[in-house]
Amino acid sequence: MTTAVDNTCAALARVSGDDLRVPLVQGGTTTYANFDYAASAPALAQVIDRVQQLLPFYASVHRGAGYASRISTECYEAARGSVTRFLDAADDQVVVFTRNTTDSLNLLASCVPGETVVLDIEHHANFLPWARNGRRVVAAADTVEETIGTLVAELCSRPAALLAVTGASNVTGEVLPLERLATIAHQCGARILVDAAQLAPHRRISLRETGIDYLAFSGHKLYAPFGAGVLVGHRDWLDAAQPYLAGGGAVREVSTTAAEWAPAPQRHEAGSPNVLGAAALAAACDALCAIDAETLAAHEHRLADRLRDGLAAIPGVRLLSIWTDSPDTVGIVAFTLDGFVPGHVAAYLSAEHGIGVRDGRFCAHPLLTRLGLDGALRASIGLGTTSADVERLVEAVATLVRTGPAWDYAATNGLWNPTPETRPFTSAAPTGAAPCLLG
Predict the structure, then answer these.
(1) d(CA 33, CA 35)
(2) How far is residue 82 from each of residues 78, 88, 163, 284, measured CA to CA in Å?
(3) Active-site residues: which are they?
(4) 190-210 burial by CB neighbour count: b if 16+ within 10 A, else e?
(5) Residue 93 has what DSSP assignment?
(6) Does the global pTM surpass 0.90?
């Protein structure tokens, strides 16, 4: 199979690692083609610049009169404003900094005053935490319309406090009509939480316009891999709940017998916060706000459509989807290849072509079970993806089908370790320890 490279679709932004050279099993090196943005996106150049600018001033926040502490505090609190603008949050919605999306959803789960309705297609982070106060699981139907109907029936069957849904599936990239679901939840007396880990990097979201009550996402998926995430939402539930972590910073006053807790967001940000992570996340929000939404969507659709079309033309490839009537998808393409173990395909793409994809069950076991699979492959697109990258992935899969792999990945359990000379880092490992690709 041969394809003509379309060089008209260039990267939308500079990201770290866009010139990374990686070793190949057949010898030599090649430029890395990253199709694993959905797992962790590389840092934007603007994010790296913001962190480097702040590092000389890094100090404890909220507790120091020194100049560096004051600058760090100012940057940390200003980061809330960047997130608020990025999401167009309402006046009564607060920004709580967390470690990641999972942390955010667990925090909210500790605050929900009642049961939560959730679909069976969710990432584990938006499925497991809700069990603590009562989780009602709804099976997704074959179409979006039928699925919405089952959610309406469940919400109307008895009161629920919250409807928790994914913004975009982390497996297939399919997007639900969030404004419509928010209206339905409110009509049924519930609030709505959106897991936007996969949606926020690809689409602009207005909490004010959609009526979304709570939203969570991770910095490491938003081109800010410095360990921060956010939960944004109405403060009443957050203020009524016990602090997510008990400790300094979450209190107004403490005696030997009692504590007076501060309101949100401080109530749920005990301890020394991740100042650099918050600043990095804010820089990513600012950078994405500066990209025209239509330009971002067009870039993504063009690349994703070409990837789907190219893969679909290869014998044995099955593209995965949840619904037959999905109105929209972000740049995530999941697929299987007849006769090949997903892990071995991922190893082949890396070792022989320098291409990074994800394989496995993607922390969405119920969904993979629903699709009748115990594993699949996922290629995800980001701001640094180009048409040449897409053509390279399509051609690599086609070559595997035509000629098979050069390396026996089954014999090595899908593992291939580059030689020490090609590794950028070294470290001493205990005797008998498993080899590390970086040392």
Answers:
(1) 6
(2) 7, 10, 27, 9
(3) 363
(4) bbbbbbbbbbbbbbbbebeeb
(5) E
(6) yes
